[in-house]
Design brief:
Blueprint: H1 3-14, H2 17-39, H3 47-58, H4 63-73, E1 83-90, E2 96-103, H5 106-119, E3 123-124, E4 134-143, H6 149-158, E5 161-166, E6 170-175, H7 180-189, E7 194-203, E8 207-208, H8 211-226, E9 230-235, E10 237-238, H9 241-249
Length: about 250
């Protein structure tokens, strides 16, 4: 079970939906703008844009907001010019962290991201200091309450997934990015509710954390995730179920 999915589980339990909605929509709009600018405004011909739109819709972003973001990205409307940057570093316990941002001011954002790492006992690294150990993978998470592991595994693997791993609360499906849409559609057609679905950077090796470092690392991820410019955060931490239960109780 990847740190990405366990962090998502913790975040869902802590989330205050109304307070986060405006910030979340702003992040989704930036993601849509960058995708439309780099690969075109047609979601049928632009998988990155299609995924950004799907994520925005999953967070109940209004269609008017989505359409406006596409037009801004395509240059049909005025607005700030955004660029995509990946920051790399290490957190407590030696975990590797990849932080994808979309910003209109790289100098401001770099300083703020560095400050978050420093504040949480980590350090920002040079380009490719940790990126070499991550690879893009489709990651689909469903609730363990909705379907048994055997059923999820059968549907996922028969539609191109590479693996399914489970904890007491979720099943995490991983697949090649090329199989992502097919696996996601198969889950939906089977009536299995999807908690999250995205192309994520997944690490080859995991670092298992004790409670002390787990608290520090999740705080680092939380602060990065809350930053206005941050679109996604990937890490290679693993939290054992007994430690996860204590974190959820905090």
């Amino acid at each position: 079970m990847s740190g990405h999915s366990k962090w998502s589980t913790i975040k869902r339990k802590k989330a205050k939906v109304d307070a986060q909605r405006s910030k979340s929509w702003s992040k989704r709009a930036r993601d849509i703008m960058v995708a439309a600018r780099m690969w075109g405004p047609d979601p049928d011909a632009n998988p990155r844009l299609r995924m950004a739109i799907d994520k925005a819709k999953s967070e109940n972003m209004p269609n008017d907001n989505i359409d406006r973001a596409i037009k801004k990205g395509a240059g049909e409307l005025g607005g700030a010019s955004y660029e995509e940057i990946v920051y790399e570093g290490y957190g407590p316990g030696g975990v590797a962290v990849l932080c994808q941002v979309v910003t209109d001011n790289r100098n401001r954002t770099a300083g703020e991201i560095r400050k978050v790492f420093d504040r949480c006992g980590g350090n920002l690294g040079a380009s490719n200091s940790v990126a070499w150990s991550f690879h893009p993978r489709g990651v689909i998470v469903v609730s363990a309450e909705d379907a048994a592991e055997d059923r999820v595994f059968e549907i996922a693997v028969s539609n191109g997934a590479a693996d399914v791993s489970s904890s007491r609360t979720i099943h995490e499906i991983t697949c090649d990015p090329a199989a992502f849409q097919q696996v996601k559609a198969a889950m939906e057609q089977a009536g299995i509710a999807i908690q999250s679905a995205e192309i994520s950077m997944v690490a080859e090796n995991q670092v298992t954390l004790d409670l002390g470092n787990a608290r520090k690392v999740t705080r680092l991820i939380e602060l990065l995730d809350e930053h206005d410019d941050v679109q996604s955060v990937a890490s290679n931490f693993d939290i054992p179920d007994d430690v996860l239960a204590q974190l959820e109780a905090d």
